[in-house]
Amino acid sequence: MEQLIDQIRQKELLLIRKAYLVRNVIDSLNTASAFMVALFSFAAYMLSSSSHELTPQVAFVSLTLFMQLRAPMVIIAMLIGQMVQAVVSNKRLKQYFIADELDSSTVERHPLHNATKDAVEFEDFSATWDYNESSPSTLQNINLNAARGTLIAVVGKVGSGKSSLLSALLGEMGKLRGRIGLRGKVAYVPQLPWIQNMTVRDNILFGKPFDKHRYSQVLSACTLKADLRSLANGDMTEIGEKVLGPHGLIRQKTRILVTHRLSYVKQADEIVVLGDGQIIEIGRYNDLMEKCDVFAKFVSEYSSKSKDDEEDDDSIDDVSLLENVDVDMDKSNLSNLSKSPVRNSTSSIQFSHMLNEDGGQLIKKELVKSGHVKLSVYHLYLKAASYWISFLFFSLYSGFQMFNVLRMFWLSAWTDEYVDYHENRTSLGVRLGVYGGLGIIESTCYFLSLVCLAFAALSASYNLHAPLLHNLLRSPMSFFDTTPLGRILNRCAKDIEVVDIFLPLDFRYLGLCILQLLSTLTIIVISTPIFVVVLVPLAIIYYFFLRFYVPTSRQLKRLESTHRSPIYSHFSETIQGAATIRAFNKVEEFRNASGNVVDAFIKCRYSNVVSNRWLAIRLEFIGNLVVCDSLK
């Protein structure tokens, strides 16, 4: 499994590498566009007439206008990529939205007023899973009546349509013809138990108000009291998926039992034999055995197979299997344990041992850390990304910014010749050549730095995902019992996406902002030394903004990540129990619960966006003060 996932991950990283290459080329062209436009504009301006002089007013005003064009061009390039993603997402969503809905009229539901009428009625019913009239029928011409209070056993070989019959009764299949009538309420026990990440009591109540007397009756009917006594917090113990399952006998209800194990059908009031989606025989056990037809042959085959299995089991030395097992158990509990499945008994023993340590809470709450990010986290990322590649990236990125500053100084020296009226001016060819050469070196450093960043990001993505997968597949079962599936999906999906896509961009923009800030302030201080007096109070104001914003933003990011996990958990939980939710008519409740977890996430997300706008306004104000003071 690990090797298979790793191969899929390698294919994903290959696609990410191609996306990085395309993005790097586009970003490099966008960055070089302002320089190229300025170079050709200055050359055309100077060569078009001998009277044209490249004064500071002409050069730097033009350069400012060219730089203003750069931002829209960058945004347009980003929008093109996002539009492509939007088109792909739209196609996927369209396929989902235009998919056929479940037809609520498939099953005719009536209240149970007349006790003499059958609880379940199938009349010439045919259905399919494909919701297409041209597709072959999974169930064909089903005619079946189930009287109130009877136990109906549906038997047949694998693939004969037993589970499809129950699904049709729940309205989960597409009706081709015929009708299904249902009187009263439905209780559905799926083949795979569906249990939510909540307390035992909440799972049993399933949204209904707590009635102590009826609740006690349910526990007795399902023989769950012995299991609950083994839990530290009883029915208030939090459980996860497939931890406990209801078992026992439900009386005075119409029950339809689907099974391929014939040892359970002798007590049924009526037996329905299915084959190839059609009803072959209907009757009581003894009557069907006397016919010596399909059911009798099926029982004979099952009995011979069971006998062979028992002979194989008898050949195993029971003592050798148990000689290494150390069990200390009260003999008074043996009778209770013998009445329950071994799987449930074993689970109860394990959970009792586990929950005594946690005070009865099985599902661990996701912790939200506080305080600054430790340096070891940055060290871990740089190590995964490769120190040498990271160093090369920062060196090339610094070179890109350095040549950008040199190009501005060269342009400033070029324009000063026209202000000072130098007689021995440098030739136009030299000026344009040096300006163009510096710009080409600048663009080359920028492109190579992005290539290094891409390789560092891919290295970090693989080196962080591989141990995550390795440890996840080797985690004990107690980890999966105490960790919701949504939390695991959040780590393997969104958090890995952050490592793959967003962290490299953040490091890139961090380096760009720091280098641009230092270079800009250096140029201003060199040209206007008095600016140092204004720089100190501005730095103090900026420090207080930074000190207030960074902890707030960091904590909001953590809350956002924490509140994303319940969305995945609720979604995966709902998908697994969709048939049960619809059977118990709980769709609206789960829709509201989904809205609640999404709203909680959006609140954190909105607060994070608002905090970013708060900082942007204040940084814009500081930037305007810097420009104002530098012009004085």
From TrEMBL:
<feature type="transmembrane region" description="Helical">
    <location>
        <begin position="380"/>
        <end position="400"/>
    </location>
</feature>
<keyword id="KW-0472">Membrane</keyword>
<dbReference type="GO" id="GO:0016887">
    <property type="term" value="F:ATP hydrolysis activity"/>
</dbReference>
<keyword id="KW-0067">ATP-binding</keyword>
<keyword id="KW-0812">Transmembrane</keyword>
<dbReference type="GO" id="GO:0016020">
    <property type="term" value="C:membrane"/>
</dbReference>
<dbReference type="InterPro" id="IPR011527">
    <property type="entry name" value="ABC1_TM_dom"/>
</dbReference>
<dbReference type="InterPro" id="IPR036640">
    <property type="entry name" value="ABC1_TM_sf"/>
</dbReference>
<dbReference type="InterPro" id="IPR003439">
    <property type="entry name" value="ABC_transporter-like_ATP-bd"/>
</dbReference>
<feature type="transmembrane region" description="Helical">
    <location>
        <begin position="67"/>
        <end position="88"/>
    </location>
</feature>
<feature type="transmembrane region" description="Helical">
    <location>
        <begin position="21"/>
        <end position="47"/>
    </location>
</feature>
<keyword id="KW-0813">Transport</keyword>
<protein>
    <recommendedName>
        <fullName>ABC transmembrane type-1 domain-containing protein</fullName>
    </recommendedName>
</protein>
<feature type="domain" description="ABC transporter">
    <location>
        <begin position="120"/>
        <end position="301"/>
    </location>
</feature>
<dbReference type="Pfam" id="PF00664">
    <property type="entry name" value="ABC_membrane"/>
</dbReference>
<dbReference type="Pfam" id="PF00005">
    <property type="entry name" value="ABC_tran"/>
</dbReference>
<keyword id="KW-0547">Nucleotide-binding</keyword>
<feature type="domain" description="ABC transmembrane type-1">
    <location>
        <begin position="391"/>
        <end position="627"/>
    </location>
</feature>
<dbReference type="InterPro" id="IPR050173">
    <property type="entry name" value="ABC_transporter_C-like"/>
</dbReference>
<feature type="domain" description="ABC transmembrane type-1">
    <location>
        <begin position="1"/>
        <end position="85"/>
    </location>
</feature>
<feature type="transmembrane region" description="Helical">
    <location>
        <begin position="532"/>
        <end position="550"/>
    </location>
</feature>
<keyword id="KW-1133">Transmembrane helix</keyword>
<dbReference type="InterPro" id="IPR027417">
    <property type="entry name" value="P-loop_NTPase"/>
</dbReference>
<dbReference type="GO" id="GO:0005524">
    <property type="term" value="F:ATP binding"/>
</dbReference>
<dbReference type="GO" id="GO:0140359">
    <property type="term" value="F:ABC-type transporter activity"/>
</dbReference>
